[in-house]
Amino acid sequence: MIERYSRAVMRDLWSEQHRYDRWLEVEILAVQAWERLGKIPEGVSSRLRNATVSPERVEYWEAQYHHDVLAFLSAVGESVDPEDAKYIHYGLTSTDVVDTALSSLLNEALVIIHQDLVALRKAVRHIALTHKMTPIMGRTHGMHAEPTSFGLKALLWWLELGRNMERLEAASRRMRVMKISGAVGNYANIPTAVEQHVGDALGLEPAPLSTQVLQRDRHAEVVMVLALIGTTLDKMATEIRHLQRSEVGEVEEPFAVGQRGSSAMPHKRNPVKAEQISGLARILRGYVVPALEDVPLWHERDISHSSAERVMLPDVTILTDYLLTQMHRIIDGLVVNPERMLHNIHLSGGLVFSQKVLLALVEQGMTREAAYKLVQGHAMAALKDPSQTFRFRLEQDSEVAQRLPGGALSQLFDIGPYLAAVDEIYDRIGIESEEA
Predict the structure, then answer these.
(1) Do 121 and 158 contact (CB within 8 A), yes or no?
(2) 139-153, 165-179, 236-250, 399-413: least confident range
(3) Are residue 334 and residue 198 in the same domain, yes or no?
(4) What is d(CA 292, CA 282) in angstroms, rounded to the nearest whole number?
(5) CA nearest to 223, candidates 86, 340, 82, 318
(6) Quick one: 66 and 157 in the same domain?
(7) How confident is the model at residue 219 (pLDDT cuts 50, 70, 90)?
(8) C-alpha span between 289 and 324 (Å, rounded)
(9) What is the Rg, in whole angstroms, of the alpha carbon atoms belonging to the chain?
């Protein structure tokens, strides 16, 4: 992933140096396990702790071998006594090291992403609680429908982020595995005790069964969950972008002092951060297909998955981390305009209260068909000629006046009933009782 869309903490995690250092850690732990079994002289693993590995030297040897792990072993061997070097990779196959180290690195990345999710969800919770009773125009098909609460929008995001946390925790648990089981996964040249020792040291569980590789449904699940997280962020960003439109003006992503929105138009304040999230979420979703196609491999293993993963797994974790932190900044600095929300509710001259009028007329004895026809007629006329509002037209209708006399009609244009169940919804979900 390019530096523009990555944070240093994730770039460093996926750096070549960090990857080779983790490979070396796996190798040394395996030597340590062999020592405890009495198969390797004591002291070798301790001396190997002084080993180093340089990406430049790995690259040098790989140009000759065309094999990255053999190149790595030669590069490490240059930094230690040859007598000790001969025990590195004892009984192992390449993917014992590569897949175990990959699981370790991937789980480190998922821990960071989980922390990001927790922080964003906390910020969204604040919006949901602050604007619990802030009325906003509810829209279906992009059109005015009925009033609702802006807090409910944020509460919806909070719930979805919570489901993504559950999915991430489940996928992380299934990804917290490793394998040191040999060339075809049957421990022909290495005992299970070596695998267990390495797994314990790295905080990973030996897979119940592997071939030469860990099965890629685990990795695919992680990618799909991260793509779904990105899609939730895209959903949030899309809503913010719509609500920021000039004609709407109900919310606005933060606009920094000195920020400029357009090279040509000085007045512009564009939702560029939200647009960036929507765009990059497409990249995340695009990795789902190669992740799934990495699952079927030939027999005990082929290498078709490896090249895709070298690009895909760093990219999806780096991007997810970046998008979560970007959305956190947007939510933390979100400008909310309750006055504009209220203005937009009344923009149509009361049209959005049409269902209340319909139901009231039915309660007063009209058939639903007749009531619908009457209310729709006045609504369509008001849309055609806004000089006489929907409410005004109803007030002039003798049949409506007969069935809804006095203040009965005016009560139907009150926003209060549209927020009447908000407390119950919040209580049912339990967001207010959760720890801040």
Answers:
(1) yes
(2) 399-413
(3) yes
(4) 17
(5) 318
(6) no
(7) very high
(8) 22
(9) 31
Is residue 64 a part of any domain in this protein?
yes
How does pLDDT run across 260-289, given as a tens digit for each residue? 777 778 787 888 999 999 999 999 999 999
38 in the Ramachandran plot: left (φ > 0), alpha (ψ -120 to 50) or beta?
A: left
DSSP string covering 14-74: TSHHHHHHHHHHHHHHHHHHHHHTTSS-TTHHHHHTT----HHHHHHHHHHHS-HHHHHHH
Domain enclosing residue 24, as ranges: 1-88
Characterize the bridge pairing of strands 205-206 and 251-252.
unpaired
Which of the following is catalytic: 66, 141, 267, 299? 141
Helix, strand and coil percent figures for the chain, each rounded to 5: 65, 5, 30
Please say if 103 is a catalytic residue: no
Q: Would you call 141 a catalytic residue per the annotation?
A: yes
- 3-state DSSP call for residue 435? coil
Q: Are 315 and 287 in contact (CB under 8 A)?
A: yes
Beta pairing, strands 143-149 & 135-140: antiparallel
3 state SS of 335: strand
Residue 3 DSSP class: G
Q: Quick one: 292 and 251 in the same domain?
A: yes
Q: What is the mean pLDDT of residues 13-30?
A: 98
Contact indicator for 274, 240 with CB cutoff of 8 Å: yes
Name 108's Cβ contacts closer than 8 Å, sequence gap at least 6.
13
> What's the predicted TM-score (pTM) here?
0.94
Beta bridge partners of 83: none
Which pLDDT score is estimated for 14? 97
Q: Cα 314 to chain center, whole Å? A: 15
- The size of the chain, in residues, is 436
Q: Of 15, 46, 67, 262, which is the active-site residue?
A: 262
Is residue 436 pLDDT above 60, yes or no? no
Q: What is the CATH number of the domain that holds 64?
A: 1.10.275.10
Residues in contact with 9: Cβ distance below 8 Å, sequence separation at least 6, in sequence order? 112, 321
The CA-to-CA distance between both ends of the chain, in Å, stands at: 34
DSSP secondary structure of 246-288? TTT-SEE----TT--S-SS-TT----HHHHHHHHHHHHHHHTH
